[in-house]
């Protein structure tokens, strides 16, 4: 399961980086095209860069979730720092809320994607439903990533501490 966690981490990071790189390429390309007389820029640069930015953030959310990198309430962690059972309970509660959030977000964005039929003005080959389609997929994958993180946590918490003094993530 640890290998799956690492694989999800690497793939989601790579996809997000590629999307941000594509966004930056489109923005720089448009700047160069505006400087060429009688050509001007491309009309679709703003919307495409916005969509790539949002999609990249949804994809990197998978990486953040699978590695347990979400924001934490430090007060609660401090209260249970000396209790292995308390740490496990807090981890389960954290992950359950994260899963619940992503399931609700996936469902809501699925409803949005299925109802959005209007055309995108500057990108005529796509309608908004197609643009929004990545959102429920990304949120569902984030929910699954939270499950993977929880499984890896319990697998690692059952093992004896390594000689290198590995600290508990939670």
Structural class: mainly alpha
Count up the domains: 1
Query: Strand share of the residues?
Result: under 5%
Beginning-to-end CA distance, first to last residue: 18 Å
Instruction: Provide the succession of SSEs.
Output: HHHHHH
- Binned, the helix content reads over 70%
Describe this structure in words.
This protein is mostly helical and 170 residues long. The protein has one domain. The protein is 72% helix and 0% strand. The protein contains six helices and no strands. Helix 1 runs antiparallel to helix 2 and helix 1 (2-35) packs antiparallel against helix 6. It is elongated and about 70 Å long. The mean pLDDT is 86.
State the gist of this model.
The chain is mainly alpha-helical and 170 residues long. The protein has helices at 2-35, 45-66, 74-79, 84-115, 128-132, 134-157. It has one domain (2-157).
């Amino acid at each position: 399961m640890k290998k799956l966690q690492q694989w999800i981490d690497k793939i989601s990071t790579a996809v997000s980086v590629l999307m941000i790189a594509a966004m930056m390429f489109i923005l720089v390309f448009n700047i160069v095209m505006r400087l060429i007389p009688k050509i001007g820029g491309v009309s679709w640069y703003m919307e495409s860069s916005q969509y790539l930015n949002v999609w990249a953030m949804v994809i990197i959310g998978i990486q953040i979730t699978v590695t347990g990198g979400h924001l934490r309430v430090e007060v609660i962690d401090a209260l249970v720092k000396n209790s292995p059972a308390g740490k496990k309970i807090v981890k389960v509660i954290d992950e359950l809320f994260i899963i619940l959030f992503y399931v609700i977000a996936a469902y809501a964005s699925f409803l949005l994607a299925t109802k959005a039929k209007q055309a995108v003005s500057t990108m005529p080959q796509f309608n908004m439903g197609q643009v929004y389609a990545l959102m429920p997929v990304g949120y569902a994958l984030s929910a699954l990533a939270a499950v993977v993180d929880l499984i890896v946590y319990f697998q690692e918490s059952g093992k004896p501490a390594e000689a290198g003094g590995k600290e508990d993530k939670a």
